[in-house]
Design a protein that fits this description.
Deoxyribonuclease I, Chain A; 2 domains; 6-stranded mixed β-sheet; 8 helices; about 20% strand; elongated
């Protein structure tokens, strides 16, 4: 029994050391080393494990040697680092996008459903049932191949306006809209296999908004898929330049293949222009729907200051490795600056 306890203690100390090192290295998340970048993703898991192991070390330690103090300092440092990023997605901070209140009849309300369907998922019915239940005004589906495009065509009666850019390398994209698409451009921001959409959408009262649909490649390598090597998040940087010159209220939505607490402002250059609907409200972890222990937010909605948020939901599983995300937004007239929220 004594030997087993010694082994468990050693494992505990090794885990404590590894968590502390990983949390500290995660500060260099924008480095070109993709393995360091990946440490930016599991911050929730790092925080929880660090806290649990810290408690275990305190409880089980009878004699305090120098290395135990070092491990405790390392764990506390890691907890502090991860708290710095995670706290923005709790109710301890103010929301970035104000909650819609005292709505006026002149305010435009509309809903958006995002879904990375997972190209290899061959169960379309769960998604179609969710769409029928929520009845969103806009639907953005990602990882759409030829099979998924055919299955989604049943939406055409309810959604007369659409854009389809299909491929077989998990980056096909489809946008369905109940509102007229006055203008839509398909761009390949950083990779010839990875489309994005820039749409001008005319709402029910004739007001126009700009809607950017994006699904950039992840910051790591996957065999036979478009690779991010050397691109340095160029897709987001190019998108940011467009948004800085915006003339309309703007929404950016999609599977960014990056977590919300990543440095999106720096990557896009849109500080004080784009606001995250999650801030002050919760994580709404959209990935991985297939693994409860490894979940973080990858599917995002960012808006400019003219919008208010009425509802934000993570929807049930649809057979994909992503949960769909549903939002209800309000475009208000003469919107005050967000500092008045």
């Amino acid at each position: 029994m004594g030997k087993i306890r010694q082994i468990l203690v050693v494992i505990l100390y090794v885990l404590a050391f590894a968590l502390a090192i990983c949390s500290i290295l995660s500060l260099f998340r924008n480095a070109e080393i993709r393995y360091i970048k990946m440490l930016d993703f599991p911050r929730i898991q790092f925080f929880i494990l660090s806290f649990v192991i810290l408690i275990l070390i305190i409880i089980t330690s009878k004699k305090w040697q120098w290395f135990k103090y070092l491990l405790v300092v390392g764990l506390l440092t890691g907890i502090s680092i991860n708290t710095f990023f995670l706290i923005n997605y709790t109710s301890l901070v103010s929301v970035n996008v104000p909650t819609a209140k005292n709505l006026k009849t002149s305010d435009d309300q509309f809903s958006l459903l995002l879904s990375n369907v997972k190209m290899t998922n061959r169960k379309a019915q769960p998604l179609l049932e969710l769409i029928d239940l929520k009845k969103p005004d806009l639907i953005l589906a990602m990882e759409v191949d030829g099979w998924w495009d055919k299955k989604l065509k049943v939406l055409e009666n309810e959604y007369p306006y659409s854009q389809h850019t299909i491929n077989e390398v998990t980056y096909g994209m489809v946008l369905y809209s109940k509102f007229p698409l006055e203008k839509i451009e398909v761009d390949y921001l950083a990779n010839e296999n990875v489309p994005s959409f820039k749409s001008t959408i005319s709402l029910s009262d004739g007001k126009n908004i700009s809607f950017h649909s994006i699904h950039p490649v992840p910051p790591t390598h996957f065999k036979d898929l478009p690779d991010n090597a050397g691109q340095q998040e160029n897709a987001l940087k190019k998108l940011g330049k467009e948004i800085k010159g915006r003339k309309l209220p703007t929404i950016v939505a999609g599977d960014l293949n990056d977590v919300v607490w990543s440095n999106v402002d720096e990557l896009t250059g849109t500080k004080n222009i784009l606001y995250d609907v999650r801030v002050g409200r919760g994580f709404y972890n959209s990935f991985n729907a297939e693994n409860f222990l490894m979940r973080w937010p990858l599917d995002h909605v960012f808006v400019t200051e003219e919008f208010r948020l009425k509802k934000l939901e993570r929807l049930p599983k649809i057979g994909s490795d992503h949960f769909p995300i549903y939002t209800e937004l309000v475009l208000v007239n003469n919107a005050a600056h967000l500092n008045t929220k």
